[in-house]
Amino acid sequence: MSDPALSVSSAVVPSGATADGRGMPARKSRRSTWPYLFVLPAVIAIGFGFIFPLVTVIRNSFYSGTFYKLTFVGFDNYKFMFQDDVFLTSLKNNLKLLLTVPFMTVVALIVAVILNDGIRGWRAYRSSIFLPYILPAVGIGLAFSVFLQYNGGLNAILRAVGLDSLAVDWLGSPTWAIWSVGAVVVWQQLGFGVVVFLAALLSLPPEVTEAARIDGVSWTQLQTRIHIPQIRTAIEFFVVTEAITVLSWVFTYVYVLTLGGPGNASSVMEFYIWKNGFAQGSVGLANSAAVIVMLLASVLIFAYLRLRSRPDAQARGL
Amino acid sequence: MKISGLASIPRHVLLAILTVIALAPLIFMVLTSVKSPDEYSVNPAGLPKSITFENYTHALIDLPTLRWAMNSLIVTVVAVIISTVVGAMAAYAISFGNFRGRTTLLSGSIAAIMVPPVVLVVPMFVTMVNLKLINTLGSVIVFYSCLLVPFCIFFLYNFFRTVPAELVEAAVVDGAGPIRTLFSVVVPLAKPALVTVAVVNAIWAWNELLIALVFLQDEKSRTLMAGMTLLQGRYVTNQPLVLAVATLSILPVALFYLLSQRAFVRGLTAGIGK
């Protein structure tokens, strides 16, 4: 990315400005010192909090041992990890969670389209559907860990209405545990999609809708042919963001709901990193798994940056 | 295209179902928290037959809940202040200054927002041990501040660039240095954006678990989120108590949300599109 090309538009180049009397050259000069001083703390923060640990984790993924005594082992961590059933289960579980993304996207779109129709009480619906998104995952995770127990609230309700056969051990069964985690993720993230899509729909120019209505298109055609295509960028942003979320931001849910169990049935890659790094002392494996998570996330981050640089995203001030 | 009258009933039904799903676990949590453990064991889903606040007094007096909440508050406030100041200065330089690496810093910040903290936590743990910060709130404050800076830069840059350049130029012509221009011209204009950034970052810091769990292993130094996870294993037979603490942890966020919904919606959809 070339630097001066983009900076022209927003850089202020005042005419006739002189030195400001504090030893800082005015902005007239193409290059002055003050911007460097202003960005220095941020550069230190990003260097210390992101770049340094990223470089370290990549380097250390080729070492084995404890935190303080590392021995070079080449690709051994990676070789071991890809034969480790726990890692493979974790990776598979992350991929299963990826299936929640299209589900959430479709449901959130339907809800947003309905709310955008100016249905009575839409603000109240939006507020309550969005509420879960901002609540602490630990708090709601604890609530769900009790609610979903075999003798918890959900099964009590199911039994009360005669659906005994549906009352399974949601968190304790190896088949269901990861899907229960997925359900809690959906419960918390769905409102985010609704708010994002609704905001995009509300910002569409009303003229197009008017014109379509005069042309007599049906409600379904209006939504699928006219409204939804226009908010494509918002949909893509949501899909990419949620894909990153379920691949690499679900540790809290797993830790609080199942601790990766039963056995390792509901472990995810983040949990594998935490367990190897901080509970089992296999730091090398924690590092190599972290590199894999970063690689997968990088693909999505790259997609995210590409979306951002699109003209229609820029026009919206993204 | 409005659909009125009877035709809108199925839509209300769908929205009502979703609302119930969104609120049911929260209602379950609050109802459970006012039951005695004995009542919960025979009546897990129904309304409480008698309401007791014993779990809350137990949580607030016998457990370190308040201490953990205080730790969370300190961590949140300090990290939000540091990251907002650092981010605002960088965003100002990116918006109105001209320097090498300007666009790199901007796109680097956008990319950094999405970097999963789990990737960074192992090396940072070792660093914090070496800096002798482990088990102190300082470790969490420093790392949170670093992690929050990119979002501050990105969000504030988007706002600062809408500030008319003439205003900034006028201040410079009047002899104001960049620090004065930032704090007396741009910051007052950017108040809503600063509030939004602070709200979103405060929620993130208050809710964070992984880093707090790893850096603060000592029981007393934990944040509320990290502390609460201890109760889960310790009070397996007293779910109402655990959910009383969970309710207490959610309450400030829910109240905050009701008071500043607009800031939330604006801030959390910022990365995505209007």
The CATH architecture classification of chain A is Orthogonal Bundle
Mean pLDDT score of chain A, rounded? 85
Count of domains of chain A? 1
Q: What fraction strand of chain A?
A: under 5%
Number of strands of chain B: 0
Q: Tell me what the CATH architecture of the largest domain in chain B is.
A: Orthogonal Bundle
Number of strands of chain A: 2
Quaternary state of this entry equals heterodimer
Per DSSP, the total helix count of chain B is: 14
- Give the largest chain-chain interface (CB within 8 Å): A-B, 129 and 110 residues
Describe this structure in words.
The complex is a heterodimer of chains A (318) and B (274). Chain A is mainly alpha-helical and 318 residues long. Chain A has one domain: MetI-like (MetI-like fold). Chain A is built from 16 helices and two strands. A two-stranded antiparallel sheet of chain A has the order 1-2. In chain A, strand 1 and strand 2 form a beta hairpin. Chain A is globular. The relative contact order of chain A is 0.12. The N terminus of chain A is likely disordered. With 274 residues, chain B is mainly α. Chain B folds into two domains: 53 residues, no CATH class; 171 residues, MetI-like fold, CATH 1.10.3720. Chain B contains 14 helices and no strands. Chain B starts with 8 loop residues before the first helix and ends in a 6-residue tail after the last helix. Classes of the chains: A mainly alpha (318), B mainly alpha (274). Chains A and B meet through helix 1, helix 2, helix 5, helix 6 and helix 7 of A and helix 1, helix 4, helix 5, helix 6 and helix 7 of B.
